[in-house]
Amino acid sequence: MNFRKRTVSGLLAAVIFAAAIPFYVKAAPAQGVEAEPVVVVIDPGHGGTNIGGQIPGMDEKNATLVTALAMKEELEKYEGVTVYLTRYGDQDMSLSDRPRAAAAVGADFFFSIHYNKAVPNRLYGAEVWIPSLGENYARGYACGDLILNELCDTYGLYRRGIKTKVNDRGTDYYGVIKYATELGIPSMIIEHCHIDNEADFRFFNSPEKLQLLGRLDATGVAKYFGLKSEELGVDYSGVQKTIVAAPGVPVVQDMTPPESAAIVSAAKADGKITATLQGSDAQSGILYYDYSLDGGLTWSTLQKWDSVGNSCNVTIDGDGPSLTVRLYNRYDLSTQSGIMPLG
Hints:
By secondary structure, this protein is an alpha+beta fold. The protein has helices at residues 60-75, 97-104, 134-154, 175-182, 207-225; strands at residues 25-26, 38-44, 54-55, 58-59, 81-85, 109-116, 126-129, 159-163, 187-194, 228-229, 234-235, 260-269, 272-280, 286-292, 303-304, 311-317, 322-329, 334-336, 340-341. The protein is built from 5 helices and 19 strands. Helix 3 (134-154) links the parallel strand 7 and strand 8. The longest helix has 21 residues, at 134-154.
């Protein structure tokens, strides 16, 4: 079935926009809120004339609002937290307006909600982008790890990882992260999945699934802050977090491809090829591989690297005369192996 011809029914009808509602509105406090609750600000990405990514039947600006509203509703079930949104309607907002709204309410954390789209549309999975420096990096890493646990380990999205990106001036590339950092607010961009890739379609193809993604985000945030909820019957005060050092210099994105890519062994039988692949990327690890059975003329879709190490055993459907692979790191840069003839 042609993915581009599919539609996501009901997404546009999932939210009734209220044009008169201001950019950010204080949520009703959860029951049992303490005198100084945790303050979370959720930013539905895009809005107004800034549509974001599009596929037939779905605009990113609408999907992010559905997810953000569900995240807010779920977080409000916990004690000791107050939640704000940067927008409730279909407004234009600048990149700097969004963190300023968070600063105005004394945010403890700022989350910008997004859906991914790539050119070419080969990528799939969930990722988070965090500040590149200092305590905000350490906080972003700890919180991002917990959110990805929910999106990936619980829900099944492929884990693209926790990432940073700096510009040629050595400061954070993404505007909302840069402005939030300048205002002293920990921040994160959550890219839930790739709306233009068949592999991710089943994770977001209804309003209910967009809402579920928001609830999963909320669970990760609740675990990060150690919240508890009598309504939900959970207490996350003892949840362990991944602790990383606060870097004194920016953590720069990986700009080099994997150091190596090789086919250690390969054999074919009964229309299948079994192979052991090996590769290394010291900075960001191996994330995907693809393969060619005709010497590099055509390539498969991206395959998951189902290994935590440098070696991966794979089974490939096909009966070509040779095998060639490319290994991709977390920043989607690749290195190609040699061609291995298949007898």
